[in-house]
Write a structure and sequence with these properties.
314 residues; binds zinc ion; alpha/beta; metal-binding; eleven-stranded mixed β-sheet; three-stranded antiparallel β-sheet; zinc; AspA/AstE_fam; 25% strand; AstE_AspA_cat; metal ion binding; OB fold (Dihydrolipoamide Acetyltransferase, E2P)
C-alpha cells in the first residue's frame, strides 16, 4: 500500500503549553466536561496528528469545560518513514497496551515513561476520543469497548458506520479502557476511532469529522467555531451497525496465513468456514454471518490479535 499522506511538521506542536511535551490544554473557566482528544498513540498513525495540528492552527478554544489535545508517542513518530511505516508503530512496546497500574509502575520502556507523562492529562479527562488508523485498507470504525454508555455516545455521533464493541486485547490494556474510562459504575466516556488505512488521505478527513462531532456532542465548542469542512456529511450518514466482538483470533505461531486477502468487515455466511491457518491448524468462523474485524498480519508475532470475530447486534 502506498502512503499518500505527508508527514506533518510537529516542531511547534510538540512544545505543548502545559510543560508536558505534545500536550495542549485549554480551560474555558466555565463548567462543562473535560475533553481529551489524543493522536499518535501509534507513531505511524498520522491522521490524528493532522487533525490536532489543524485544530491548533485554527485557534479553537473551548466555550465550556476544558479541552486537552495530546500528541502521544512522539518518540515513535520521530522514527516514521513512509516507506517502512510499520516500523514506527512504537519504539519499545505498544503504547496502547501499557495502561495498567502494574505496567505504569515499571517505567522500563520509552512508552511506559511517556504514559507516565501523559497520565495526569488522561486522569483529568472525563471524555476521550482517541484517533487511530489501520494497517490495511478498511472502512473506518468506532471501537467503543463494552460499556453501554460508550456505545450510546457512538450512536449519538452518527459516524462512522461501524461500531465495534470489544473488550480489548489479551496483551495489555488500552488507554481508552483505563481507570475511569473502563469503570462500569462511572460516567466517563471513551471512544477510539480507526479512520481507515494509515496512508489514505480519507483517514485525515474521517479523523477531523469524528473530532468535530465528538466536540459538538460534548458541548465544549459550538458549530460556528469549527471549520466548515470538518462538519461535512459526505455520505457517511447511513444507518450505523453495532458489531459485538465475540472473540479475538490470537496468533499462536509466526506461521499464520489467511486464506483470502481479508480487508475487514467481510461477513462470512456459514459457520465453520476456514479463513486461515495457524501453524497448519485451520482458523474457522464460529457462527453464521460472522464479521471479520481488522484482519492484519503486519504485526504478526505469537500473542498478537490478527482478526476479531463479531456478530451484528444492531
Ligand atoms: Zn492505532
Amino acid at each position: 500500500m502506498i502512503f499518500k499522506i505527508d508527514t506533518p511538521d510537529l516542531t511547534q506542536e510538540r512544545a505543548g503549553n502545559t510543560g508536558t511535551p505534545g500536550v495542549w490544554h485549554f480551560d474555558s473557566g466555565k463548567p462543562g466536561p473535560s475533553v481529551l482528544i489524543s493522536a499518535l498513540i501509534h507513531g505511524n498513525e498520522l491522521c490524528g496528528a493532522w487533525a490536532l495540528k489543524d485544530l491548533l492552527a485554527s485557534g479553537l478554544k473551548p466555550e465550556n469545560g476544558k479541552l486537552t489535545l495530546a500528541f502521544c508517542n512522539l518518540a515513535a513518530f520521530d522514527r516514521f518513514d513512509p516507506l517502512a511505516h510499520d516500523t514506527s508503530r512504537f519504539a519499545d512496546e505498544d503504547l496502547n497496551r501499557v495502561w495498567t497500574e502494574q505496567k505504569l509502575a515499571e517505567p522500563s520502556t520509552l512508552e511506559r515513561q511517556r504514559a507516565a507523562e501523559l497520565l495526569p492529562w488522561v486522569k483529568q479527562a472525563d471524555r476521550l476520543l482517541d484517533l487511530h488508523s489501520m494497517h490495511e485498507p478498511s472502512p473506518p470504525l468506532l471501537v467503543t469497548g463494552i460499556l453501554q454508555r460508550n456505545i450510546d455516545v457512538g450512536l449519538r455521533l452518527g459516524v462512522p458506520r461501524h461500531l465495534v464493541v470489544d473488550a480489548g486485547h489479551k496483551d495489555g490494556t488500552r488507554m481508552r479502557d483505563y481507570a475511569q474510562f473502563g469503570d462500569p459504575e462511572g460516567q466517563a466516556l471513551a471512544l477510539l476511532v480507526e479512520c481507515g488505512f494509515h496512508g489514505d488521505p480519507s483517514s485525515v478527513r474521517i479523523a477531523k469529522q469524528t473530532t468535530a462531532r465528538f466536540l459538538l456532542e460534548s458541548g465544549v465548542v459550538s458549530a460556528g467555531q469549527l471549520p466548515a469542512e470538518w462538519q461535512e456529511r459526505d455520505g457517511q450518514d447511513i444507518a450505523q451497525q453495532v458489531l459485538q466482538v465475540t472473540e479475538p483470533v490470537v496468533a499462536k505461531s509466526k506461521n499464520l496465513t489467511f486464506s483470502s486477502p481479508w480487508q475487514g468487515m467481510e461477513c462470512i455466511e456459514h459457520a465453520g468456514t476456514t479463513i486461515g491457518h495457524d501453524d497448519g491448524v485451520p482458523i474457522v468462523t464460529p457462527y453464521d454471518n460472522c464479521v471479520l474485524v481488522m484482519p492484519s498480519l503486519r504485526q504478526l508475532v505469537p500473542g498478537v490479535t490478527v482478526v476479531r470475530f463479531a456478530r451484528q447486534v444492531h
